[in-house]
């Protein structure tokens, strides 16, 4: 009915958080922080296979991409079923109080479930990413140790 | 059926992305994010529907299946359209920018007396 609005709202919040994190990381780099955190931003995926860490703003972008992409395609499905219309109040169920209550219930159950599942999958991606980063960091260190022996 | 269609699209796009990763010159990552995001959301929808219908969830009417397949294919098409628009705007290979530059140069040369 309007379940896609919940992940879309989360996507909006994550996008704002991403922008804030990006500006903080840029400021940190300017102040003499670790340049490897922000350099090669466009090819940040390379950081997974190479040395260095993926910036947190990039990780937030993964979540916002998942949420925006999913919400956009789900919004299309709702237009398809006539649940979203291009005129006020935009949601057909919002006109009738009984339907509105049903819609809110669906948002609270399915909508929140969607947002939680996407966020949980992103959490899994973060764990995998941090393991890969740690392995990439350990690799050169181990080689240096071997060389010293 | 919509979930299945989107899931197949997500898997195919991920394989296509992986073949060229991490460079991603055709920006296929955009398609992966969109289709995986939608698949996860429809999975939740499917779980709720299964909780409501039980085993009947797996035996839909042929007309419903056809309509859902039609919707799934339309969703995949919409995703592809969004991807093409983003690809042309970002223009990672500089094709559009180069073409515009050449067109501008040609028109400036033609205007010269």
Describe this structure in words.
The complex is a heterodimer of chains A (149) and B (113). By secondary structure, chain A is mostly helical. Chain A has one domain (5-23, 54-148). Chain A is built from four helices and no strands. Chain A has helices spanning 5-30, 46-49, 56-80, 97-148. In chain A, helix 3 runs antiparallel to helix 4 (97-148). The longest helix of chain A is centred in the C-terminal third of the chain and has 52 residues, at 97-148. Chain A is elongated, with a radius of gyration of 21 Å. The N and C termini of chain A lie far apart (66 Å). Chain B is mainly α. Chain B has one domain (2-111). Helices cover 81% and strands 0% of the residues of chain B. Chain B has helices at 2-20, 28-53, 62-90, 95-111. In chain B, helix 1 (2-20) packs parallel to helix 3 and helix 2 runs antiparallel to helix 3. The mean pLDDT of chain B is 90. The A-B interface holds A 3-4, 7, 43, 45-46, 48-49, 62, 65-74, 76-77, 80, 109-110, 113-114, 117-118, 121 and B 2, 6, 21-24, 30, 33-45, 47-48, 71, 74-75, 78-79, 82.
């Amino acid at each position: 009915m309007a379940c896609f609005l919940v992940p879309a709202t989360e996507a909006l919040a994550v996008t704002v958080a991403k922008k804030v994190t990006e500006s903080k990381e840029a400021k940190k780099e300017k102040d003499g922080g670790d340049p490897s955190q922000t350099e090669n931003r466009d090819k940040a995926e390379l950081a997974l296979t190479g040395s260095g860490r993926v910036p947190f703003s990039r990780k937030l972008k993964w979540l916002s991409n998942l949420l925006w992409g999913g919400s956009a395609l789900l919004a299309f499905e709702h237009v398809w079923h006539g649940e979203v219309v291009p005129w006020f109040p935009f949601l057909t169920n919002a006109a009738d109080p009984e339907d509105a209550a049903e819609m809110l219930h669906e948002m609270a159950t399915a909508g929140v479930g969607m947002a939680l599942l996407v966020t949980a999958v992103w959490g899994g991606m973060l764990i995998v990413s941090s393991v890969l980063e740690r392995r990439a960091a350990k690799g050169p260190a181990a080689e240096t140790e071997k060389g010293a022996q | 059926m919509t979930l299945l269609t989107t899931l197949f699209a997500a898997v195919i796009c991920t394989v296509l992305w992986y073949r060229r990763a991490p460079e991603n010159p055709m920006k296929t990552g955009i398609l992966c994010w969109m289709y995986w995001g939608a698949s996860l959301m429809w999975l939740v929808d499917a779980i709720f529907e299964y909780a409501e219908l039980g085993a009947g969830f797996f035996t839909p009417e042929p007309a419903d299946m056809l309509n859902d397949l039609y919707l799934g294919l339309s969703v995949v098409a919409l995703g592809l359209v969004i991807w093409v628009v983003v690809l042309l705007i970002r223009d990672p290979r500089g094709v559009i920018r180069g073409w515009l530059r050449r067109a501008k140069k040609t028109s400036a040369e033609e205007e010269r007396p």
